[in-house]
Specification:
550 residues; alpha/beta; Urocanase fold; Rossmann fold; 2 domains; nine-stranded mixed β-sheet; 17 strands; 42% helix; 15% strand; binds nicotinamide-adenine-dinucleotide
Length: 550
């Protein structure tokens, strides 16, 4: 039975034992499509997150996808081009059920302006990576990533704890909305600025924000009091980051950690320039694109100058993957790239070992299935301190959104072990239904993105997109259930290429084979990518795993 969804009543949360499709594999993908809309930011417009990241091109395409998933057989493959189903082909029962390519523009034309034009004509859609491939699980999915970054900084700079530390950030949307909870879980006093009062209220209502301050002075006072008592606290503030960051700098206050997760990548559908409201931006989208882009860049320039001031004063400042430095450089901030990107600064050693955000979703809709898998993770990996600490924290503090789901940073071999053990639980009837596995795009083999994932690679291969293309082909050859290839849309046009994968554990031996090959080969290629780029850690990991590198 689907469950009511108070946030978006027209988009119930899927679940229950009844199948509408001809098998669990098809049903699983259908439920995941329903799920991304149920936890999305603006499902009436098919928008899931990242300003314009959509689950399907339009409502006709959505209806055709739903109909096809319901009626197709296991030996068929549904082909989706930028959110629109274009063919149902006869393949074989071990081939992917769905393959998709989203938003891939030919190099010369891979620019924001061309994307917006094609999107207006209805020819393309930005899949936002996990939106278009139906893998998004709400803000809960990004909490661990943000928490891990905070903890890496705590270890490197603050003696392992953020108690008494002030974190300043902005953006409370689909991804950014995780920041206040992740900051609080890391023990910090965190201030999160968002220009849209509705987004602030949404994160307050689910308890990610402890409180919303009426103005900047009150916000800084609350933060200061929490710091003095080493008390974790998350404070929201309605305001424009381009105004608030410089205002904090002007007061001489220096946070310990500064970042930003507004939709700075998209100057037409995302970032709100100083002096404008989200409604002003909506009005200007069609007629005033040029004006919006110029005003957005100028505002980002001011925000990033303040971030550089904080850095000069000793704060730990980083770009959290939203192109804010790129936009600032175009606005004339020549030293914007003095700010490091989070992947290079904190996460690359993990990627070298194939460790990254791996996620699983209980298709039954039952929270007890995730609780059982939490126990299993603790049983299987008692010595993995990061993962066991995270599972205990997440159980206590991360509320479920949509289909009950969990994400944890597991590595090569660990992921496969877990997936196979879960498949056994499904087979034995220990869970109420099958479980789908996927992983994020911030993962070793998944993404070429020279301003986020592959910045400053040791061998200079930052801009080479062969690796995600190879990954997608490897995943098809490894029998994954869904394989997706994406490039960037909106302001990300021309900036990235990425591969996504979903595999369903339905308890059958065939599922065990699919899980084993897909998950193992995905992390294998990730390790090989970093080994090939010259990272010793990755070469060692490849040797330990016995990976054959001709
Ligand atoms: P979103 O569009 O759902 O939310 C963006 C938020 O920023 C909105 O709430 C908006 O009101 C707010 N905002 C816009 N301009 C502002 C301004 N000037 N001042 C204050 N608030 C402002 O986007 P999202 O899904 O939360 O993603 C945020 C960014 O993070 C995107 O660029 C996205 O691509 C990027 N991202 C990073 C990672 C990562 O792992 N680091 C992962 C996914 C997405």
């Amino acid at each position: 039975m689907p469950r009511d969804n108070p946030r978006h009543p027209r988009f119930p949360i899927p679940g229950g034992p009844e199948l509408r499709a001809r098998g669990w594999r098809q049903e699983a993908l259908l439920r995941l499509l329903e799920n991304v809309l149920s936890v999305g930011e603006d499902p009436d417009n098919l928008v899931v997150y990242a300003a314009l990241g959509k689950a399907a091109r339009n409502w006709d395409a959505h209806a055709a996808i739903v109909r096809t998933l319901t009626e197709m057989d296991e030996d068929q493959t549904l082909v989706i081009q930028s959110g629109k189903p274009v063919a149902l082909l006869r393949t074989h029962a071990e081939a992917p059920l769905v393959i998709m390519a989203n938003c891939n523009l030919v190099g010369q034309w891979a620019r924001a302006e061309v994307f917006y034009e094609l999107e207006r004509k209805g020819l393309i859609c930005w899949g936002g990576l996990t939106a278009g491939a139906w893998q998004y699980i709400g803000s809960q999915g990004v909490i661990q990533g943000t928490y891990e970054i905070f903890m890496r900084i705590a270890e490197a700079r603050f003696g392992g704890s953020l108690a008494g530390r002030f974190v300043l950030t902005a953006g409370l949307g689909g991804m950014g909305g995780a920041q206040p909870l992740a900051g609080r879980m890391a023990g910090a006093a965190i201030l999160v600025v968002d220009v849209d009062p509705d987004r602030v209220e949404t994160r307050r209502a689910i308890g990610f924000l402890d409180t919303v301050a009426p103005d900047l002075d009150s916000a800084l006072q609350l933060i200061g009091e929490a710091q003095a008592q080493d008390r974790a606290l998350s404070v929201g503030l309605v305001g424009n980051a381009a105004d608030v960051y410089p205002a904090i700098a002007a007061r001489g206050v220096v946070p310990d950690i500064v970042t930003d997760q507004t939709s700075a990548h998209d100057l037409v559908y995302g970032y709100v320039p100083s002096g404008m409201s989200p409604a002003d931006v909506r009005r200007l989208r069609v007629e005033g694109q040029g004006q919006l882009m110029a005003a957005g860049r100028a505002s980002i320039g001011r925000q990033v100058r303040a971030m550089l001031e904080f850095r000069a004063a000793g704060a730990e400042v980083f770009d959290n993957g939203n192109l804010i430095r790129t936009q600032a450089r175009e606005a004339g901030v020549a030293d914007a790239f003095d700010i490091p990107v989070f992947t290079e600064a904190y996460l690359r050693p993990l990627f070298c070992q194939g460790i990254g955000p791996f996620r699983w979703m209980a298709l039954s809709g039952e929270e007890s299935d995730i609780a059982r898998i939490d126990d299993l993770v603790l049983e299987l990996f008692p010595d993995n301190r990061i993962v066991s600490n995270w599972i205990r924290l997440a159980r206590a503090q991360v509320p479920f959104e949509g289909l009950p789901a969990r994400i944890a940073w597991l590595g090569h071999g660990e992921r496969t072990r877990l997936a196979l053990a879960v498949n056994d639980l499904v087979r034995d009837g220990a869970l109420k239904g099958p479980v789908a596995f996927s992983r994020d795009h911030l993962d070793a083999g998944a993404m070429a993105h020279p301003n986020i994932m592959t910045e400053n690679l040791r061998d200079g291969s930052d801009a080479i997109a062969d690796w995600p293309l190879l990954d997608a082909m490897v995943l098809c050859a490894s029998k994954a259930d869904l394989v997706a290839l994406h490039s960037g849309g909106g302001g990300y046009a021309g900036y990235m290429t990425s591969a996504g994968v979903t595999v369903v554990a339905d308890g059958t031996p065939a599922a065990a084979d699919r899980l084993d090959r897909s998950i193992t080969n995905d992390t294998s290629l990730g390790i090989v990518r970093y080994a090939d780029a010259g990272y010793e850690d990755a070469r060692d990991a490849a040797d330990r795993a016995g990976l054959l590198r001709p």
